[in-house]
Amino acid sequence: MIDYKYILIVDNNEPSNFLHSDAVRDSFPNSEIISYTNSTVFTIACLAHSEWFENETLLLLDSNMPINFGYDVLEEIEEEIDDLDHLSVLMVTSSNLKRDVERAVRFSSIKGYVGKLLGEAKMRVQLANS
């Protein structure tokens, strides 16, 4: 499994962020974990922190947030940042709609699509299959 320098968690639900942080902390104890509950603030932070994308980075991204959908956030990041070769994205959602899964496969950085709440086992399976 890849050793991620940064793990970014974006979910508008603070308890979900806490649980996801625990799951990744157990699997990646040497990674810096950074979480956001606001997708707009996260997108702005991405532009200010280019080092996130110069190193192996895992993004756990909620697909359904009140301000922007996760896919919209990812599109904006791809438009603004040239090199995302080190970015791996797991879409984390409570949705099982076919259109959401179909939309996810259009992004090369998306390595998996997992249901909430993300546990360590679910995360490991998705990352191992990417």
Number of strands: 5
- The portion of residues assigned to helices is 25-40%
Shape: globular
Strands of the largest sheet, in order across it?
A: 2-1-3-4-5
Distance between the ends = 10 Å
Biggest beta-sheet profile = 5 strands, parallel
What is the second-level CATH architecture? 3-Layer(aba) Sandwich
Q: What is the N-to-C order of secondary-structure elements (H for helix, E for strand)?
A: EHEHEHEHEH
Class inferred from helices and paired strands: alpha/beta
CATH superfamily: Response regulator
Ranges where pLDDT stays below 50 over 5 or more residues in a row are: none
Rounded mean pLDDT score:
83
Work out the radius of gyration: 13 Å
Beta content:
15-25%
Q: What is the CATH top level name?
A: Alpha Beta
**Domain count:** 1
What would the CATH topology be? Rossmann fold
